[in-house]
Each structure stands twice: as structure tokens, then as C-alpha cells.
Amino acid sequence: MNKGILTALLSIVLAQGFKIPLHYMKKKEWKPELFFQTGGMPSSHSAGVASLTTFIALKKGVKTIDFALSFIYGLIVMYDAQGIRRQTGELTLKVNSLDELVRKAHEEESVEFEEKKPKILKEMLGHQPQEVVGGAVLGLVMGALGFLVSKKDRQRNRFFVR
Fold it and tell me: Can you tell me the distance from the alpha carbon of 134 to that of 137, in angstroms, rounded to the nearest whole number?
């Protein structure tokens, strides 16, 4: 398998896994379901793109088109994670609280009103800037480790081929 892809996927899984103990340390609440949710510390999006970009930089060099594509793509993903997706999450908080306000307003009316209960929207979509940075640092470390492991594998294979 492509070692760059494997490194990025492992970084994403590791970042998702870190969310559980980090949440526990912060809130004293064990939530294994965080592994399957977006948002939170560290950003798995940032970890994935940063590890791939680091792997490419170390393997091919920073002057290659591979690195340039990965770097720009990574910047867009990280910007989106902490910008647009975070704003969407904050907007969702407002929408979810509107449901409560509407319910209270209807309780005071004398007119009968039947409303289907809407599904609560997911509020934790994006990342705070420090969560993006945390994911990027994790990705840098994982990208470097992935490169070192692939380099050792290459050297070991050369030894056995002779």
C-alpha cells in the first residue's frame, strides 16, 4: 500500500482516538463515541493532511509538485475546519436553541399547535484554532515517523534482495 496514504490514515485514526482521553481529562466524562464524531481536540482533518504533507516533503522534497499540491490542499482543509465548519457549528447551536424558544412561546398560546419534534442538529462540526494546530502538530510527528519507518523498510528490503 502507498505509505503516504497509510501514514495519513493512521494519523486520522490516532487523532480520533486521542479525543477520548483528552475529553476525559478536561471534562471527567468518558465518551468513547467521540471516536466517530467530528470536531474536538485534536483535529483529525489537520492531522491527516499535515502527516501526508510532511511525508511527501521528506520523501520527495519541498520543491516538487507533489508537495505543493499537498501543502495547498492541507491549508484549505485546515482553514475550512476552523473557519467555515466552526461557524456552521456555532450557527447550529443557535438553531437548536431556537427550538426551545419556539416551544416556550407555544406553551403560552391558547391555540392548539401540533409540531413534529425536529432532529437536533449536530453542534460539534468544526474546530477551534488550537484544535487545528494540535492536529497539525500530531500530523507533523506522524508524517516524520511514517517516513522513517518507510525508509527503514526500504533499507531492510534492499538487504534481503541481494
Answer: 5
